[in-house]
Each structure stands twice: as C-alpha cells, then as structure tokens.
Amino acid sequence: RNSGGSGHSHFVRAMSDDVQTRVSMLHGLRAAIDFKRGLSLVYQPQINARDGELVGVEALLRWRNDAARLVPPNEFIPLAERTGLINELGLWVLDAALARLARWQAQGLALSMSVNVSSVQFRNEDFARRVLRLIEHHAVAPSAVVLEITESIALEDHAQVMGQIEELRRAGVHFAIDDFGTGFSSLSQIARLPADQLKIDRSFVEKLGVESDSSRADHAMAATVVMLAAARSMSLMAEGVETVEQRDALIAMGCEKMQGYFFGHPMPAEQFEAWLATRLQG
Ligand code: C2E
Ligand code: CA
Ligand code: CA
Ligand code: CA
C-alpha cells in the first residue's frame, strides 16, 4: 500500500473499533456475571470407546450477550483472563457444574464432571479452598471432579500452583492436562505437572486415520502423549473425535476414553438427559 496517510487512519480507526468491541464485551460480561444472565453450561459426553459406556462429561461455558449473539468462549475467555473477571466467572462455572453433578449423582448416574480451569485462577491463593468449599456445599464426591488445566500453568508462580494442586489432589480431586503439546512450554516442565489424565488435543486427532506426510507428525505427537501417560500412570482422553477412523486409530494406540462430535456434541443439561435416555433404550 502506498497511500501512507489514509492507510494509517484506516489502521487507527480499525484499532479503536477493536478496543471499543472489547470494552463493550467486557461490560456485557461483567453484567452477565453480576445479574446471572446469559451464562449457561453445555455438557459433552466422554465415552469409553471400547464398550461405549459413558464415563463422564466436560462442562463448557456458553455466553449469550444482550444482542442475543452466542459469543464463542475463545473470544471472551482470554478477555476475562486479562481483566481478572475469570476468577468470578470460573467460580460461577464450578458452582453450576457441581450443582448439576449433584443432581445427576442423586439420579444414580455414575459419571465424572470435567471443568476447565484457567491458569490465572491459581493466582488467587484462596482458589483451592473455594473449590473444596463448593464440593462440600454440593455434597459431591471429590473424585468425580476433574479440573482441566493447560500447560500455561507452568508460567505461573510454581510454589503457589503446586501447593493448591496438591491440596486439591489430597482431597481426591482429579486433574487433567488439556491441549497438551499445543503450547510453548518445555516438555520437561509439563511432564512434571502432577495430573491424573492427559488429554490428546483435537489438532493431533484430526489427522489420525489419514495417510499423508503432514499427518505423520501428528501421529507421532499422539503416540508421544500415549507413551508419556503410560510412563506417568496417567489416564488418557482424546478430544475432537469426529470419525470412526479416528476412533479406531486411538483404540489401536491404547487410548480408550474419548469425546467428540462422533459420540456427541456439547448439549444443554436437559438435552443431554434426553440423549442419555435414548441411548439407554437403544
Ligand atoms: P477445550 O477445553 O479444548 O474444549 C474443546 C472444544 O472443542 C470445545 O469448544 C468443544 O465444543 C469443541 N469440540 C468438541 N468436540 C469437537 C469435535 O469433534 N470437533 C470439533 N471441531 N470441535 C469439538 P468450545 O466449547 O467453543 O470451547 C473452546 C475453549 O474455550 C475450550 O477448549 C476451553 O479452552 C475454553 N473454555 C470453554 N469453557 C470454559 C470454562 O468454563 N472455563 C475456561 N477457563 N475455559 C473454557
Ligand atoms: Ca477442556
Ligand atoms: Ca482441549
Ligand atoms: Ca482448547
């Protein structure tokens, strides 16, 4: 582009639009938390693909803003993290997910509840205690609760993070490492994180069952995750499974637990219950 002047003003205008969008998104999110409106959870089934049994669900946050637009979490979670809103938002998610788990347990459903937790939430030194208080309040089994953390946790204060993870694990809460291998932290840092489960990221699952040069690196990555899990006695969960080929490739690699559109989309609680009912009949 050669018209430097007008190009520059376009840039400034575009930038201020972006700032405006973020400020209004922030206001909307703040109001959603304060007035408990527009926030909800959807639940994606986690299946043992060997026998088809339901083993758990992952709770995923949904936000419908005042303009009735469903804002994707990938847009508002990073903003909530930068502004600290994630602390309150994360506690809302935990409270809602544990309330749901308590109801399902009361109905006799044996399943675990995986909840995504941002690394930022561990900066609050009260975080572990608050989680334990919520577990107690809803009277759910701590061992049915899986907190999904990401490798970005390695960038946080080590002692503070480890102290809180250990406190929660002593109480029986489980941890999963999400999006493994997609971040920038060193393998040795991640390999040392105390966790019970490794999640094979969708980006590696995508190429399974496909023969190509570029898929070979993804196969290798998935295989590495499988080996690491075995070496550390951690369980495995694959995500983003969309095809029967991916399912079979994962089973052949030794990964039996998985989630993805092949088995079920994330669903509101009532829809999940209906989905479960038709499965039990079928
Ligand atoms: P994630 O934890 O890796 O969640 C998996 C994402 O993949 C979800 O997107 C899910 O809807 C989608 N997905 C599941 N199965 C398939 C599949 O077979 N194919 C494809 N293409 N996608 C699939 P979603 O719900 O939009 O969430 C995006 C991310 O936002 C999550 O990634 C997580 O990092 C974050 N997130 C969602 N809810 C929460 C929350 O309550 N707290 C925090 N801190 N982060 C959350
Ligand atoms: Ca997750
Ligand atoms: Ca993931
Ligand atoms: Ca992700």
Automatic annotation (TrEMBL):
Residues 22-280 form the EAL domain. Keywords: Phosphoprotein. This is EAL domain-containing protein. It comes from Uliginosibacterium sediminicola.
